[in-house]
Design a protein that fits this description.
mainly alpha
């Protein structure tokens, strides 16, 4: 009986630790935070067709971020920034 209580207490402790720990993917990724802001700030000065293409890339990247695929999202964001002629610190995060 004593062994069962000790085992049960150990399982409860392990379960509470496992449920309390945040997954690594829960941390916000800088690529999905900073790069879309850069793109949005560069959109107003762009040609209409270039802005439309960059906006499409932005939306695709945001969808990839929601799907937890930051690497592919960063590639889309980089293409959008390149189309807009923008550069900055956000473009160096793709290899992260």
């Amino acid at each position: 009986m004593r062994n069962a209580i000790v085992t049960l207490a150990g399982l409860v402790l392990t379960g509470s630790i496992a449920l309390g720990a945040a997954p690594a993917s829960a941390a916000p990724d800088a690529r999905c935070e900073a790069m879309p802001q850069q793109i949005r700030s560069a959109l107003p000065g762009a040609d209409k067709s270039v802005a439309a293409n960059a906006t499409r890339r932005l939306r695709t990247g945001e969808a990839l971020c929601r799907a937890n695929n930051q690497r592919a999202a960063a590639k889309e964001f980089q293409v959008a920034l390149k189309l807009l002629g923008a550069s900055g610190t956000g473009t160096t995060l793709a290899g992260k």
